[in-house]
């Protein structure tokens, strides 16, 4: 399994995806085709944390008047399944690895995975 979960309207996602050869990867635009419960469970298996998959920059946090600091794992899981913008993106998922988000360390690991300098 090789999947990339991304948002087409996100410039950062498009910029990251453009750096890699994704011809044999399944590309999932999460607004059109949201993450399933099974896929989220697979991501959780690799991260051991729903919070690690959760984007604290989601506009939905403010709209729903959520206090991100008071959320628990069950809340993160529910929100991740409820609205696509709660997923930190992009997410590169393979049978053995997961790369979540666009922070510098994650991008370095992703480049190493793809053998890109």
Automatic annotation (TrEMBL):
SUPFAM superfamilies: Thioredoxin-like. It comes from the Bacteria. It holds the Pfam family ArsC. Belongs to the ArsC family. This is Glutaredoxin family protein, arsenate reductase.
């Amino acid at each position: 399994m090789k999947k990339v979960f991304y948002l087409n309207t996100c410039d950062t996602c498009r910029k990251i995806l453009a750096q890699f050869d994704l011809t044999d990867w399944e590309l999932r635009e999460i607004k059109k085709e949201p993450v399933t419960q099974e896929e989220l469970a697979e991501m959780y298996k690799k991260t051991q944390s729903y919070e690690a998959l959760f984007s604290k920059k989601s506009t939905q946090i403010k709209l729903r008047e959520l206090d991100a600091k008071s959320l628990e794992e069950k809340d993160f899981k529910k929100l991740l399944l409820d609205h696509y913008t709660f997923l930190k993106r992009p997410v590169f998922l393979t049978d053995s690895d997961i790369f979540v988000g666009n922070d510098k360390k994650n991008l370095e690991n992703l480049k190493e995975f793809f053998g890109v300098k």
